[in-house]
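(Protein data)
===
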Amino acid sequence: MSQARARAGAKPHKSFKARLRQLQGFIKKNKFDPLLIKKVDWLLIGLVLAISLFGVVCIFAATGTTIIPRPSSIWRMIQQQPKYHAMLQLLWTVLGMAVMGVFMYFSYQFLSTYSNAIYWGNIILLTVVLFMRAGRGSMSGWFYIGTRTFQPSEIAKLAIVITLAKWFSERKTPVNNIRSLLQALAYVGLPLVLILLQPDYGTALVYLAIFAVMMFLSGLDWKLLTGVIILAAVIVVPLWNYLINAEEVSFRLTRILIFLDPSSNPDSARQITNAKIAIGSGGLWGKGLFANGSFAVLDYIPDDHTDFIFSIVGETFGFVGAGALILAYLIMIVRMTAMSSSAGDSFGTYLTIGIMAMMLFHIVENVCMVMGLLPVTGIPLPFVSYGGSNMLTNYAGIGIVMNVYMRRFEVRVSSSQVRPQISI
């Protein structure tokens, strides 16, 4: 009996040692080669860092206050302004660079190996967070760590990209039937439902955008695509009629109604109205930092350092500054698209495409909602809006993209895989 117990007790120890040896072997096999430094796309890294530092300046401007009389020098003006949010954003930028380095270190193939663990770990986090106390907008989407918060729905975007990249890269044929489409939807459906239960409809839209872009570029059959669009219209039209005729209109539906007709609810539309006025008042060159009477220092725009930071960009730096930021984003997206086409395998291509789609949707939705061209969804502007969870997620995404690009000659493309055709 004692010998049997001893044998039973020895198994876990042996298993642990085997797993430890396996981990050591993995680290040794995937040890970072210093020669890979020569293959880093420094243009993309420099561009992202420049956007991040510009974001720190914009947050500094958004959280500033009116000072009368105006200080005699810029340095004295900076000394008299609150720096808490700007300094914290700078810290997130530094940590983000470190996170990017971690994701560049090991070969991106480990994401494929552990994609199931990443997916279910993501599901666990999204489930547990539903039981946390509600925050802004009555949303249960944050873990509270002292005075700081952590939003798992941000890193969940990368988990979805990794899961879908793994699924698409292993297919031998494009998605051309309902069964295959339902399989893909199943991967997205579970985390999407958990996000909607928070409820966080803005992030849910990001999930759908990632899924749509990756599905389209995988070679989705046009007949199947047409059927999906028709089915969506059949569902959305009666649902919309029900919502607008309901006795109680939710504040999320109010955002859509305000977008369609701001005059229908001037009080609720004040945020977007002031944001558009701030952008227009910046003119060509902007009012400059901490201009007396600016919307930034008067705090006329709620969330101007987070979701509505683009209004501060327009007011402070004018059309030139806002245009330069958009141009930087455009170069970043084009560069990532080009990098996806040069990936060594389909998994790397899909990873890059998914991360590019995630950032592109954030940029388009945020800029357009601030300008009144799309409904307000509470989606941050990448590398510019204040927030640690989103900043670290974006830098992790850039790290994965860079990982794929650096190792594009180390892997072979399997002819049996469905590889999206991308040219730039």
Q: What stands out?
A: The chain has one domain: 33-406. The mean pLDDT is 80.
